[in-house]
Amino acid sequence: MNGHHPCQLLPRSPFHLSQISKLMQTEPSDKKLVIHCPRCRKDNVFDQPYMYHAGFSDQGFMYNDNGHCTLVWSSYDPVIRQFFPPGRYMSEDSALREHFEQALRPSPDGGRWRFANPPRCLYCSGPIAWTILQQIYYLVYPESIITDQNNRLDLALQLITPTKPTA
Ligand SMILES: [Zn+2]
């Protein structure tokens, strides 16, 4: 935990759009989130209108080791129920979290996914927001893995050893 209040990272208005075309390779959108890096002062531009609230959509998330990629899952994914049985809480059980992290395939850049990894500045790699252990809002980087898109629950595809659905 650091001493910053989350509101310091809420989107600023008006947005600074000058670097979007350089950063974003997806279709242009007029809804961009800009996070001002507290370390290098540069603007990190995200292709999302605001920081997503994982609790509102029953999601979980974590970042990879370099903090430039996000893994998102649904709380209803059977893999989550397998690794975090009823009555055991993700936020309170570091042994279960570690077990889950070690079961995951490496992130696209080869680093590991870890609950304790913060999202990091694309320019200087300083932390620019918080982990799921600190607060519930998350950022989606390019190349992120969103396992609950299109009403799917595909977290099992991110496991080193795929699991069979439980009855
Ligand atoms: Zn920075």
**Main β sheet profile:** 4 strands, mixed
Helix percent reads 10-25%
SS elements, strand count? 8
The outline comes out as globular
Q: Number of helix segments?
A: 3
- Overall pLDDT confidence: 85
Q: Which molecules other than protein and nucleic acid are bound?
A: zinc ion
Q: How do the SSEs run, as a string of H and E?
A: HEEEEEHHEEE
Low-confidence stretches: 1-26
Regarding quaternary structure, how should these chains be classified?
Answer: single chain
Q: Termini, distance in Å?
A: 40 Å
Helix/strand/pairing category? alpha+beta
Strand order of the largest sheet: 6-4-5-8
* Rg, Å, rounded: 16 Å
Percent in strands: 15-25%
Features:
167 residues; alpha+beta; single chain; four-stranded mixed beta sheet; 3 helices; binds zinc ion; disordered N terminus; two-stranded antiparallel ribbon; 12% helix
Q: Any chance you could write out the topology, listing elements then pairs?
A:
Layout: H1 20-23, E1 33-36, E2 43-46, E3 52-53, E4 59-64, E5 70-74, H2 78-83, H3 94-103, E6 113-114, E7 137-138, E8 145-146
Parallel strand pairs: 5-8
Antiparallel strand pairs: 1-2, 3-7, 4-5, 4-6
Zinc ion (ZN) binds next to loops.
